[in-house]
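Changelog excerpt

This revision adds worked examples to the README so contributors can see how folded entries look when concatenated. The first example is reproduced verbatim below.
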Amino acid sequence: MIRPLTLAILLAVSATPLAAKDAGPNYKSALADPARPAADRERDTARKPAELLAFAQIAPGEKVGDYVMGGGYVTRLLAAAVGPTGKVYAFQPSEFIAFKKQYGDDQAAVDAAYDNVDAVAGPFAAPAFATPLDTIITVQNFHDLYLKPFPAGTGDKASAALFAALKPGGTLVVVDHSAAEGSGTTLSDSLHRIDKAAVVAVLTKAGFKLEAESDLYKRTDDPRTANVFDKEIRGKTDQFALRFRKPG
């Protein structure tokens, strides 16, 4: 027979792991960050930022990279999520900045607005992160590695560079517009889409292990035949979300 005191201790011990499991990071404060512009908040419904941060398993104090930061939507979320003890390295390809000055201006603005954000520039295929990272996120940009202006092999080189930039056990999260199955990278230029299987293949070749997939941005009504910038489909594309881990 279990005595009442012993039973109470057993219940307390058994309840602790469950409570710890349920108490994940709260990303509401990251979304409520007053430094986020109104334009970012207007996009939250479609982009599901809290769910993305949870899928990426971002935690306070981490060092993370935003690979191809664009206008800074994800960078600002990461800055708030990792907090003052963390660091975000916001990478903008030098090729993008040379093509359109706004890319450089946006990067400089976000860098100036957050003490825990450092701007990083360099070749698209060779991001020069200053320190080994816990996590790298790239959203709607992986297909750009296969655009015609970039030489063949850019995707392989970038994948290897991302692998090298992570700590052993670190993670890479890729979100991108879905192309038709079997199309590989052939629609990156014409539709700005990429076949999920092609992403898995190149990153597996680089050494990554696919750990998880999310249906966060799944849209079964997208036939995946239109350019993602077409007004009828923009903001409503079917997208995949993949989390890879560097062994170690």
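The second example, added in the same revision:
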Amino acid sequence: MSWYFMMDTYIETERLELIPLTAPLLKLWVEDLSGLEAELNCSYEAEPMEGFFLDIVKVQLEITQNDPDNYLWHSFWLLIRKTSRTVVGAADFKDIPNENKEVEIGYGLGKAFEHYGYMTEAVQAMCDWALKQKGVSHVTAETDLDGFASQRILQRCGFKEVKRGETIWWKL
């Protein structure tokens, strides 16, 4: 049976399906992209799986494998455009909710899909989902000082700037 159909949690928006990757799916993403595409019946056109981004995903794979019960908080969620089954980006919660009932969200989009509102749609849906979960009262995010597109996404989703230093911290 496909891992895709065994998942009990995913988020659907107007244009996207947000699919959280179980540890086996996350492993496919890291090691066998064509295998992941076959498993999810999609084509991957998001951020290239290389360099710093690949390193981040590998770390999250190890954490997800070690804590499979909390994979929704450790793994990445692929953003799949419904009309074409194209992976346009990915987002994640960087860890389980902390003692302040906060989770941090991160996200990235394939260059070809910027400026279409996909990430705003996905971030809003993921935040709505997170805030309905037990133990979550706030979603936080960090942006670079010059990350204006990311800052606009957060502002559109209702985040407020809470701290500015070498980076900007946001809270919803």
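Reviewer comment on example two: Helices lie at 3-6, 23-31, 33-40, 51-66, 71-74, 118-131, 148-156. Strands lie at 11-12, 16-20, 43-44, 76-81, 86-93, 102-109, 138-144, 160-164, 167-171.
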